[in-house]
Structure formats: C-alpha cells, structure tokens
Amino acid sequence: MMDMRSAVEDALDQIIDPCSAGIGKPVGLVRMGLIKELDLAMEGDAVAVRLQLRVTSPCCMMGPSFTAQAKEKLMSLPGICSVEVTISPEIDWTPGHMAPSYRATLSGPRIGYPEA
C-alpha cells in the first residue's frame, strides 16, 4: 500500500498550482500543502482513494480544476478503482503547509517581485 500511496502522491504533485507558476516557481499540490486528507482503502484487488484538498484563500477559484485534474490523474493509475475528491470547507492553509524545500525555493527571486 505504501508504493500505491507514493504513486498517488507523485501523481498529485504533477498538478501544478497556477499561482506558483505565475511567479516562476511552479509547484505541485503535495509540495504546496494543498492535500488535507488522503485515504487509501482496499476494495477487492484495487484501491479506492479518498482525497480532500484545501485552497489557499477564499478567493481561490482553482478548486474545481484541481478536483477534475486529480480524478483524471489518479484514475489513470493502475490498481485504482475509484477516486473521491472534495474541497475542504475550511480555509486553513498557511505557508507552513508547504514543503520545506519549496519554502526555501521561494526565498529566491520570483517573477514580478523585485530582487532584495
């Protein structure tokens, strides 16, 4: 099951947050900290995935796009039988949810931001 979890996380991290791309520092959903819950359960010989995403602010309009992309990416993985994706009703994302390596990346120059 750990191999499947890694495959699921890798697939989700291929979905790029467009705001991060807009500043020249593209990052996927996992490293951006947008995965709130990820549950994998065996159903017969296959795996059912239940995923809850978070968005960074109440103004973020990417929830439906992230949901559709996650379903498409995960259903294309061998061994996945179903995918349920929801968006958390709570707006609880903070920069602390980002992977430390990505926070370090953001400390460098960004498109549209003056260099220090």
Number of helices: 5
Helix content: 25-40%
Round the Cα radius of gyration to an integer and report it: 15 Å
From the helix content, strand content and strand pairing, which structural class follows? alpha+beta
Overall 3D shape: globular
Mean pLDDT: 93
**Major β-sheet, in short?**
3 strands, mixed
Q: Could you explain the architecture of this structure?
A:
This protein is α+β, with helices and mostly antiparallel strands. It has a single domain (2-90), classed as Fe-S cluster assembly (FSCA) (GMP Synthetase, Chain A, domain 3). It is built from five helices and three strands. It has a three-stranded mixed sheet with strand order 1-2-3. The termini are far apart. The model has no long low-confidence stretch (mean pLDDT 93).
Provide the fold topology.
Layout: H1 2-12, H2 18-22, H3 29-32, E1 35-43, E2 46-53, H4 63-75, E3 80-87, H5 100-106
Parallel strand pairs: 2-3
Antiparallel strand pairs: 1-2
Pfam families: FeS_assembly_P
Protein name: DUF59 domain-containing protein
Domain MIP18 family-like: 6-85
Key phrases:
single chain; 116 residues; alpha+beta; GMP Synthetase, Chain A, domain 3; three-stranded mixed β-sheet
Question: What is the compact description of this entry?
Answer:
It comes from Aminobacter anthyllidis. The chain is α+β, with helices and mostly antiparallel strands and 116 residues long.
